[in-house]
Amino acid sequence: MRDEHIIHMIENAPLSGLSADELANISAHAQQCAECGRAFEAAQISQLLLRERVAETIEPSPFFQTRALAALRERQSANEVSALRRLWNATGALVSSMAATVAALAILTVFAPGTQPTSAQQEMASVNSYSAEEVIFDQDESAANQMSYGQVLSTLYESDDDR
């Protein structure tokens, strides 16, 4: 009987899942073998403890729901802060460089010296400047010296034969 220990039967299936014949064989072997008898008793005690534990109902403490909801809100607010922090970590360098560029351009716009026209540019501006009276009323003193459109076109498109 030493080779036919019942420990493997006890370990593989719960006692409540064994048939009546298997329980009878285990009980008979446990009376002859002390080691298997201790294993069978341990299995019976374990089954009894589990049944009692399952039957027992545990009521939560009076303020369990309040504490659980407060802990949940605290975690959510911590996650919101960390989400903003992660966003800043991802885009902080870009935003900082853009702000520095805008600041530099603003400083250059305000404090950079304006470009002064050179004397040649001033002369060209004075030669090509028109007054409102000249444009509206065509009261240019040098209008007599100007060529008409027909004269300009005939000069431009003058054929080689005419020259």
Can you give a write-up of this model?
It is built from 7 helices and no strands. The chain has 163 residues and is an all-alpha fold. It is rod-shaped.
Largest sheet: none
**Poorly predicted runs:** none
Indicate the mean pLDDT: 79
- SSE ordering: HHHHHHH
Rg, Å, rounded: 52 Å
Number of strands: 0
Structural class per helix/strand content?
A: mainly alpha
Shape, per Cα inertia axes: rod-shaped
Give the helix tally.
Answer: 7
Strand fraction band? under 5%
Oligomeric composition of the shown chains: single chain
Percent helix among the residues?
A: 55-70%
Gap between N and C termini, in Å? 140 Å
In short:
It contains seven helices and no strands. With 163 residues, it is an all-alpha fold.
Give the secondary structure arrangement, pairings included:
Layout: H1 7-12, H2 20-32, H3 34-55, H4 64-111, H5 119-127, H6 132-137, H7 149-156
Helix pairs in contact: 2-3
Characteristic terms for this protein:
rod-shaped, mainly alpha, 163 residues
